[in-house]
Design brief:
This protein is α+β, with helices and mostly antiparallel strands and about 230 residues long. It has a domain at about 50-210: Alpha-Beta Plaits (2-Layer Sandwich). The chain has three helices and six strands. The protein has helices at about 75-90, 145-170, 190-200, and strands at about 50-55, 65-70, 70-75, 95-100, 105-115, 185. A hairpin with a 3-residue loop joins β4 (about 95-100) and β5. The longest helix is centred in the C-terminal third of the chain and has 23 residues, at about 145-170. It is globular, with a radius of gyration of 18 Å. The N and C termini lie close together (about 10 Å).
């Protein structure tokens, strides 16, 4: 499976206060091959809302523990990943750490941006004459951009993991600890929030069929499975 996944921008004109709205990106003619962005084009990721994030190790290498009896048993490295997740609240005061799970080779979490005074009805759209830049119309100043939060987390985890390799004999990794990009999904309503929360809770029990679980690290074991039926499932 390619590490990159295009988000499906199914926006709503109005959303409950905790869940942002998003504009559908305008369809464009085919372009020459290039690295695709996996962010929702034209969406302002600094606005308030809940975001489901998945980060995967390079080559899907199992570095953070193992699944036993449908439970995730964390190594010291896995516990370190968990520690840095909760440090996000100290680094980014407008971010709240919600549900999370560290898996052998990936990490799921729900991050909440609780920007005070933000207009949750803002619907940043891409200007029709500015399709290449993905420039947002407004709202960039109101909170911490999600990509900056994720990048800080990945950097902190990587730095401490390198120290663990040198000082504690942790498993080595090739080149990079994490894949270059990450998956995200904008949570738009409470029903979706509850389903994603349960998905995170159930993730260790579903490891045998997890599309990120490969006996040869980067091999997808499953085809389409029942729980992989919504766009945010990874």
């Amino acid at each position: 499976m390619d590490e990159e996944k295009i988000n499906n921008g199914r926006g709503r004109p109005m959303c409950p206060p905790a869940y942002p709205s998003a504009c559908q990106p305008t369809c464009q003619p085919a372009c020459p091959p290039q690295r695709k962005s996996i962010r929702l084009k034209g969406y302002d990721y600094s606005q308030a809302g809940l975001y489901f994030v998945t980060i995967v190790t390079q080559n899907r290498k199992n570095l953070f523990g193992e699944i036993k009896n449908d439970r995730m048993i964390l190594t010291d490295a896995g516990q370190m990943v968990e520690k840095w997740y909760y440090e996000l609240e100290n680094k980014f005061r407008n971010m709240k750490c919600r549900e999370m799970v560290v898996m052998p080779n990936h990490f799921h979490c729900i991050i909440q941006n609780v920007v005070v005074g933000a207009d949750l009805r803002v619907c940043p759209c891409v200007h029709p004459n500015n399709t290449m830049s993905g420039e947002t119309i407004s709202g960039e100043h109101i909170g911490s951009p999600l990509h900056g939060v994720v990048q800080w987390f990945k950097t902190m985890v990587t730095n401490e993991y390198i120290r663990g390799v040198k000082n504690n004999g942790w498993k080595r990794f090739d080149g990079k600890l994490w894949q270059r990009n990450y998956y995200d999904h904008i949570i738009r309503n409470e029903n979706e929030h509850q389903r994603i929360t349960q998905y995170i809770i159930d993730n260790p029990a579903k490891w045998q069929n997890d599309k990120l679980n490969g006996s040869n690290e980067n091999v997808v074991m499953e085809s389409q499975v029942e729980y992989d039926s919504e766009i945010w499932m990874i």
